[in-house]
Specification:
Chain A is an all-alpha fold. In chain B, strand 22 and strand 23 form a beta hairpin. Classes of the chains: A mainly alpha, B alpha+beta. Chains A and B meet through helix 1, helix 2 and helix 3 of A and helix 5, strand 5, helix 9 and helix 10 of B.
């Protein structure tokens, strides 16, 4: 049963990583504007890649 | 007659407007004007034509932008510094407000700005805020270039004076709320998992002691950040309230939080139990969700605007050589010359240098008719120039102008209302807290007598825990949050959810007239007198078209409609008849070819004149004379047409004043004579908005209604029947008088809703219990207020008030539900049976059921009121 200690340790670690990711997402401004990204989905990739839009998004908040 | 032919004109490829007049073809695509064509050309050259694929005809109509605003001031280093977000040697980042953003195509185009201007490094759009953030390389381009490029493609940024004075603080308060919620949710989920074995394990033997300690320790570690970080707002607010010797709802919540946490720590450390950490973190998690719901604000609207957001940032000034350049407003000094164009605002008090100008003061004073200003007369800040451009000499700095002084008037700076807002929950929380503490002490004392200290303490804390008014705290934000949502779907945007209570308690409603009940741009024109023949209509229209007086413009627009309607309906009065009717017309019919291109020749749209039976709408004007402020006379092929005041007609065409019948028309009148014979007059009044009269009729009995107008009494009789007895219709009111009127009503104990639209209502809006600013476009300028209402939703005002009253009832109902849960919980607590499992079930259950209840009932009642509940 001692393996439980390790498993719980790992599961907490994974959960903490996700919490950290959420912190990063909030701090990079992904929760500031929850509407416009839904419109960007419609854009053609050839001209404006989604990567670029994310980049814009991030930079705007800096 | 084929009337469809009239409509079947081409549609502009860029903006989707009918290409009524001269269609321009380019690349086999029709355009309504050169502006649209240019915009298309620019996009075409840059390979940005995807713009036209995302949405149909997405462009912004460029027909009416005759005078391009000048952006010289954007080269001024100081101005750039003050309006930019960030700037260094060669990078500049700025956030521009662009009201024209309206569809997917706009977002796409603006985010591909770097294809149009190589100096743009990044651009991003926030659609709801209608904002564009750009980062530009100042070595390759200038801010001015970028802004001018934006203007060419139709996205003119609105750069207002307020931008100069405040560095836009990027509000990130929501971010910390998200983070707090994340921490609480994270702890909640994990603690639930760790506590789960305990719930199943009724004997306490299954896991072995070490796991018990391990899980207990983890629970405490996970719960500490929730207490310190996530619940900090509640603890701080409770502390602040207590230190001011008040009690708000956060006090019992904080008591519950502290009791939960310390009891759990005590149980875990002494190994007497498993603690309530899951209930604790869950409680905070739900409370924060409630907070997030109530924090949902309307980003794109701003309710606390002042005069600075009304004025433009710059104005065109003439230098000594007579050259125009634009200067930012705070650099305007007295005795400078500036040129204003149609629809531009006067930024500071000035005198007129040009001979004559028409000023629209409706926003400032409530007067519906534009005022004629003669050379040398004073023009007050805030007026809007109408008609041809005018030259002005500044008298005061912007900060010393009438508008600014009016705004800074102390009565207008009433901020008490915000502070007085309390929820029903806050009001009952002192009693609630006392009751909970009373029950806790009483039952604790009882158990102390019967069994001893240990169980007494545990019952005491159990009562505090279970009585924590979590559901109570959620009911207000959830009900009002969802009411706010429903109202915004129906065009009423309220600043703060607490204000809904003020709306629901209203007893009297005060309306402004100009711009609120009436719509200034849709004038109702009617002709009273002998019927005009089609030919005469055309003459009059052509004559009026040459005048810049606002009333003539309205008449000419009205006649244009009449003529178009007649021709579409096929009411094509026989031409022979027309000739007979036209007084003293010894002319051949007007079908003779008129000289094209002449300034005085009026062209009907080609599509109409070719498809409809021939009917000439052109009239050649031989001579034209206009006396400012009096009237105009025109000779058309020998027929003398006089339009204007009665005395002007008497002067010009020799009509005896006595032959002109008295008129008792409510509104402006413009009289007409043709060849010395009096024909009648045009009555012009501001049109009443759709559905307003029905609204006034329906609320007359339930509320006391009043009309406060800065305008003259012309329309008094029209509204008389819709308002109460004497004294409820007041005209010629100054802004201060309006405010005073509201004040008097409030002293009589009335709860007042004020509906207005202009700066002249600003003081009254602030003073009233619920100030509604009416706006045709909610993102455009509105005076400081509690709510912004889309003008076409005003007719639903009664339903809005009714719905707000029902929302308050829903809050009370959900209070009852949550109290019910509390009573059940107290039953467990007092008898000493509150196990962690019971707490873990009861607390989330009460929160969730209150959320579901408020969500469903608000929507049910909204639907009953005929409001939209879904987008």
């Amino acid at each position: 049963m001692e393996v439980i200690y390790m498993l719980i340790g790992f599961s907490l670690l994974v959960a903490l990583i996700f919490l950290g990711l959420f912190f990063w997402a909030v701090k990079s401004g992904q929760f500031d504007d929850q509407y416009t990204p839904s419109m960007r989905v419609l854009f053609d990739n050839k001209k404006s890649s989604t990567k670029e839009s994310n980049h814009n998004q991030k930079n705007r908040d800096e | 007659m084929n009337s469809s032919a009239v409509i079947s004109s081409e549609i502009c490829y860029h903006c989707g407007e009918d290409c009524a007049e001269d269609t321009i073809h380019f690349n086999e695509k029709p355009f309504c004007c050169t502006g649209c064509k240019t915009a298309f050309q620019i996009l075409d050259e840059s390979g940005l034509c995807t713009y036209y694929d995302l949405d149909e005809n997405p462009g912004i109509n460029l027909k009416n932008t005759k005078h391009r605003a000048r952006f010289d001031y954007l080269e001024d280093d100081e101005v750039i510094d003050r309006i930019s977000d960030f700037r260094n040697a060669n990078k500049l980042s700025i956030t521009l407000n662009i009201p024209n953003i309206h569809c997917t195509s706009c977002v796409w185009l603006l985010e591909n700005l770097q294809k149009l201007d190589g100096g743009v490094l990044q651009s991003g759009v926030n659609f709801l805020k209608k904002e564009l953030s750009v980062l530009i390389d100042t070595d390759k381009t200038t801010l001015r270039n970028v802004v001018e490029q934006l203007v060419t493609i139709g996205y003119e940024p609105e750069i207002r004076l307020e931008k100069l004075d405040s560095k836009t603080e990027k509000s990130h308060q929501n971010r910390s709320l998200w983070l707090k919620m994340a921490v609480a949710g994270f702890a909640f989920g994990n603690i639930m998992l760790f506590s789960f074995p305990d719930y199943l394990d009724t004997t306490g033997s299954g896991l072995g002691g070490n796991f018990h300690i391990f899980f207990g320790a983890l629970n405490i570690i996970l719960a500490v950040p929730v207490l310190v970080y996530s619940s900090s707002d509640y603890l701080k607010s409770a502390y602040a309230a207590l230190s001011q010797r008040g009690v708000n709802l956060d006090v019992p919540i904080s008591i519950g939080i502290v009791a939960l946490f310390s009891r759990s720590v005590y149980e875990i450390v002494t190994m007497t139990g498993t603690g309530y950490m899951d209930s604790f973190t869950g409680l905070i998690f739900f409370l924060l969700i409630g907070k997030l719901v109530q924090q949902k604000t309307f980003n794109r609207l701003s309710f606390n605007r002042d005069y600075r957001s009304y004025l433009p940032i710059a104005v065109n000034v003439l230098n000594n050589n007579g050259e125009e350049y634009s200067v930012s407003l705070d650099k305007i000094r007295p005795n400078q010359q500036m040129r204003l164009r149609n629809q531009e605002l006067v930024p500071c008090d000035s005198t007129l240098i040009s001979d004559e100008a028409f000023m629209d003061y409706s926003f400032i004073t409530g007067e519906s008719e534009p005022v004629t200003v003669q050379k040398g007369e004073r023009i007050f800040a805030g007026g809007r120039l109408i008609g041809s451009s005018a030259l002005l000499q500044t008298e005061e700095k912007v900060t010393n102008s009438y508008l600014t002084k009016l705004w800074n008037h102390e009565a207008f700076q009433n901020n008490e209302k915000e502070l007085k807002l309390t929820t029903f929950a806050d009001k009952i929380s002192p009693y609630f807290t006392v009751a909970v503490l009373g029950i806790a002490f009483f039952s604790g004392f009882y158990w102390l007598q019967t069994t001893g200290m240990d169980s007494a303490l545990s019952v005491f804390t159990a009562v505090l825990i279970i009585a924590c008014p979590c559901a109570l705290a959620l009911s207000t934000p959830f009900t009002l949050g969802s009411a706010l949502n429903v109202l915004s779907l129906n065009g009423l945007f309220i600043k703060n959810h607490l204000l809904i209570e003020n709306l629901s308690k209203a007893t009297s409603i005060v309306f402004d007239k100009t711009g609120t009940l009436t719509k200034s741009d849709s004038a109702e024109v009617e002709f009273i007198g002998d019927e005009l023949s089609p030919q005469e209509e055309i003459w009059v229209k052509s004559a009026c078209k040459n005048s810049i007086h606002p009333l003539s413009r309205k008449i000419s627009l009205y006649l244009k409609d009449v003529i178009a309607r007649d021709s579409v309906n096929g009411v094509n009065k026989p031409r022979a008849c027309a000739v007979q009717e036209s007084v003293g017309s010894n002319l051949p019919s007007m079908e003779t070819e008129s000289i094209q291109g002449d300034r005085f020749v009026e062209n009907r749209p080609q599509s109409i004149s070719t498809t409809v039976a021939p009917r000439d709408d052109r009239a050649i004007i031989n001579s034209f004379e206009e006396l400012p402020g009096k009237g105009l006379s025109a000779k058309i092929n020998g027929d003398l047409i006089c339009i204007g005041s009665t005395s002007f007609l008497a002067d010009q065409s020799g009509i005896n004043m006595e032959h002109i019948p008295e008129s008792n028309f409510n509104g402006s009148t413009v009289h007409l004579s043709i060849n010395g014979i009096y024909k009648g007059f045009f009555g012009i009044r501001a049109g009443v908005r759709n559905g307003i009269l029905d609204l006034l009729q329906s609320i007359k009995d339930t509320f006391s209604t009043y009309l406060l107008s800065g305008d003259n009494e012309a329309q008094k009789s029209e509204f008389n029947t819709y308002f109460g007895s004497d004294g409820s219709l007041l005209f010629n009111q100054k802004p201060e008088e309006k405010l005073e009127f509201i004040n008097r009503l409030q002293e009589k104990g009335e709860r007042v809703i004020m509906v207005g639209d202009g700066l002249n209502d600003a003081g009254a809006l602030k003073k009233s219990d619920f100030g509604i600013a009416l706006a045709d476009d909610v993102s455009s300028f509105a005076p400081a207020c509690d709510a912004i209402l889309e003008s076409n939703s005003l007719k639903n005002l009664k339903n809005f008030i009714k719905f707000s009253q029902q929302s308050m009832n829903i809050i009370i109902a959900s209070f009852v539900i949550s109290l019910l849960y509390n009573t059940i919980g107290l039953g467990f607590a007092i008898t000493g049976h509150l196990s962690p499992l019971v707490a873990a079930i009861l607390m989330p259950l009460s929160s969730v059921s209150v959320m579901v209840f408020t969500f469903l009932t608000t929507r049910y009642y909204a639907r009953k009121q005929g409001l939209t509940i879904w987008k």
